[in-house]
Amino acid sequence: MANFLGYAVPGIPYGCTYALFAVGLVLTYQATGVFNFAFAAQAYVSAYLFMYFTQNGDLPTWAAFIVSVVVIAPLLGWLLDYFLFRRIPNTQVMAKVVTGISLLVGIPSLLTVAFGSQNLTDAPSILFSPNVVYFHLFGLEQVPIDGIFLSTVVVTVVALVALVILIRFTSLGLKMRAAVESRRLVQLDGVNATKVVGSAWMIAGLFAGLAGVLLAPQFAVLQSQNYITLMVTAIAAAAWGVLRSMPIAAGVAVVLGIVELIAQGYLPTGGFLYDAVLPVLPMIVLVAALLLMPGMRTIEHARDPLASVDPPTPPISSTLRSPTMDRIIKTGWWALLAVFVISMLSWVPRTWENVFNQGIAFSVIFLSITLITGMGGQLSLAQATLAGVGAFTAGQLALHLGLNLLVGGIVGAAAAAVVAVLLALLSLRLKGLGLALMTLAAGLVFTLAVFPRPSVSETTNGIALQSKWIGLGIFNPNGRAFFILGMIVLTVVTLGIIQVRKGTVGSYLTALRGSETAASGIGINPSRQRVMIFALSGAVAGIGGTLYSIQQTHVTPNVFGYQFSLVFVVVVVTTGVSTVEGAIQAGIGLTLFEQIVTYLPGRFGGNSLVFVFFAFGALTYASHPEGVLEFQRRRWTGRFDRLLFTKDDLGNPSAGSGGGVPTPPAPPTAATLPGVAPGVVAPAAPGAGAENRFELPYHG
Amino acid sequence: MKSIIRRGALPVALAISMAVVAAACSTSSTSSASSASSVPGVTATAINVGAVSTLSGPIAANFEAMVPGVEAYFDTVNAQGGVDGRKINMAYSLNTGGNPTDFGSLTETLINQDHAFAAVGIATAFFKPTYYVQTDTPTYGFNVTGTWTKHPNLFASGGSVLYYTSLGTYAAYLAKQTGATKVGLLAYNVAGSGPACKAAASILRRDGDDVAYTDLNVEYPGTTSASDVQRMQQVGVNLIVSCMTVTGNITMARAIQQYGMKTQQLWLNGNTQSVLDKYTTLMKNVYFIETHVPFGAPTKYYPGLAQYLTSMEKYEPQYVYDQTAMLGWQAAVLFVDGVKAVGSNLTQQALIDATNKMTDFTANGLIAPVDWTTGHTTAKPPYCSVFIQVEGKSFVTRFAQGHQVFVCFGGTLKPVTVAPKAGTPGV
């Protein structure tokens, strides 16, 4: 019994911090309808600033705690609501998820840019010293209670009790509970729902800050990835409460923390359960919740009786150009492509050659996101994982059978497609948020338990690829042979995707994106189409993974980690998720930008600056679902078109929008649309062009 | 662009055809251009080198002192006029930031964009040799990945072969010296950690030691060691060999203290004065293995140490007692010795060739001799290291024979000491 307690009790502080995370997630989701993926980033910000102020700013611990947790954490929550989430209509589930993920990627990088690269270690424990054992529970030597334990448990209990009092016994709590049911109904009753929701964000922010600072001393070194991993544990707990019940979420979180430590104590080390299952226990719990909790399948169904007044998802902007402008642009692109290809094969320096080659490999991986998200309308957070499946399959086949990497790449694509199909079958009843969580869990399972296995990656450094496995001079220091290979692969994949889009599958998917119910009514099987697009997406990711590994001459486990799936989504969403050229621009743009920042002094944050750039681009997804880069491209070509080629009856450049297209009737205004708050401009009429498209902000 | 791509395969096929033709045409012109180029990074007055290291991120504490160690030696040499009238500059210190995908592109930047003459002071867990080998760039650094072997242009401090098994011999020797009967080993499943402890466990078992507990898959970078410590306590482990990082060791030491476990500890990382100053209580009596003359050795027997201490105090006082800085210093000494051996007609290949002729490199009397004629492929006995132990706020040498700090073992890897060979510092 003493040993059992010795293993179990150290799990309590972990469970408490999971509970703070879980309650914060539930609170935000309940009060605002936003599943806040940025919660881990908010926690990280508080922990970072807390440690920064104590170690660099020489603030006393209590002062740093007040600044980072009591002041900055709620303020950050309020800012996220004010500037971002309250402006996204409830119907835009994908936009909310993408915005959260962008913040998750961008905020930690922003800290690096702002404060420079530094290692924050040895976080002070609030209230009690981490190095002091204050007493032994039940007098047992096996159960020492140290300062980290006491600080965490005390603060968690106080915070949860305070939250219960706030929600149950205060006016604000009453309004928050009412806002959960329907913000609009509350507003009709004279309550300022915006303030209530803002308060919920601030309280959730405070919980994030508390969790962040409490967790910090438990980590040897502060890093944002730890918070992301722990957030998944908290999500698992919150999922068992169907993102609605705070007590269940908190209870499951504490139990999960304890069970993890008990398993760590009893499972035989070196065995499969210890090495491969234990690290992913929270993900298994999350998957179980997604599969077994009926409420998680209908999580996105609106419960608000006035939900139908939400404006629809904004249409993707489009621009009709004059034929002359169209010809010029097409010719320009071809000329650019020709110059690029000839340059790559003649004078481009090795460094930049490598940049573009890497960009081509990334482009292929990113095309898998075009398939799954742009065409399929599904958000997958496991594309880097699928790329890894392809790459490791090819690497293993080459290593053990001597199979050519090009052939192995095709087998790898098939393997990635199989994994993707399994994932699709597991997620058949899920969509939107549920699917994103399922794929995130899958990504974590592969990152923590599959790729590091010796049978997969061979060594801790992965598989070093050999020239004899591919030949053709692909591994030559000058990367021209690889460039040709990359261009061929990219072209084939691109043409394949275009054919899919133009074909039956593409048409079916378009119909499903429009209305799944209507599409089913005309005989389209949504499940079949979803499995199909997952398989295609997995295969493309697998091909891209192999291509990337050939370019790197290594198949390395840590480049296919789940965190890269998040980054990939953010990057592609910025440039354009609905078009193949968006994926190619994302691939080339990412590596190009990474190289450009090497010319900047290190204090600008290096690659962090790249992530910040793309993350902020992706934040515009709600208003520019076609990608902000794509939006700007269409906008500017439209302007040039009007300026140069579109003439009115008197021969003057046309002032109308959508070059060459008659100006549509003025869109209906807020005054003519019931339920739309002032300041909202309604969706543009078809063909209205980029300038007349739906514009946020939305004040729900 | 969408409309272009939609128009079909013909233009793309044309582009690819152009690519193939251009590739064929460009081959000869490139080779002629490269043959005409001068030595990269070398001018009449300077030799510019660089490094790619992990200077920030979760594992930076193990690597960040490497470049300061290199720079201190360069400063020392430059203060004496440089080599053949050229100053040696650490012109490009690039940081992977803890991001594994960045190492390759930063390497390309260092070699192709910055045109560094050599890479001196590479210290990262993400090292991949491919491009350094392809470009024959003289490369010097800290071998934690075990990927520095075979290639004649890769020079890891202390020899390019990571001989993990010798750790088992040192652990077995320590067990005998301290009377420990049961050994536990902890490591991460990452390069440089898991393989080292796995090999050590194998040697310990072969030697008849009781390896009572192993966990070679500790969560990295780790949040708790409570379970491992309790389990080792239950099976009576009285010597823990840790292949974890400094921070992992501190977490483990805290748990050992809290659970009142009585055990000896041998750490591979953490023998740095700044760490000891911070965690004096947690590190009480911990043993370490050094591959160089320890910082506390008598300088009258070890003049190389005196030079190191003096220069580091002058140029990099923050890193004087840092083992990684010491490795950086050794890398810089090897580089400079090679440059001196080449003379005025300095090229990368000449430097590699000259260095590979050295048979007893000791980094000016800091390490046991390394034979670079074979140092890329084999580690030759005797295997010599130094045991040090924390005593108060200092590291003191243990098991020394007189003023000879190195403890050496023969080729059988039995924990029986042999005499250091001639040329070993202190002999």
Short recap of the structure:
The complex is a heterodimer of chains A (700) and B (427). Chain A is mainly alpha-helical and 700 residues long.
Descriptive account of the structure:
The complex is a heterodimer of chains A (700) and B (427). Chain A is an all-alpha fold and 700 residues long. Chain A has 28 helices and 4 strands. Chain A has a two-stranded antiparallel ribbon. Chain A starts with a helix and ends in a 56-residue tail after the last helix. With 427 residues, chain B is an alpha/beta fold. In chain B, the strands form 3 sheets. In chain B, strands 6, 7, 8, 9, 10, 11, 12, 13 and 14 form a 9-stranded mixed sheet that branches. In chain B, strands 3-4-5 form a 3-stranded parallel sheet. In chain B, strands 1-2 form a two-stranded parallel ribbon. In chain B, strand 13 and strand 14 form a beta hairpin. In chain B, helix 3 crosses helix 11 (303-315), helix 3 (66-79) crosses helix 12 and helix 12 packs across helix 13 (348-355). The longest helix of chain B is centred in the N-terminal third of the chain and has 27 residues, at 9-35. Chain B is globular and about 65 Å long. The termini of chain B are far apart. At the A-B interface, helix 1, helix 11, helix 15, helix 16 and helix 21 of A face helix 1, helix 2, helix 4, helix 5 and strand 7 of B.
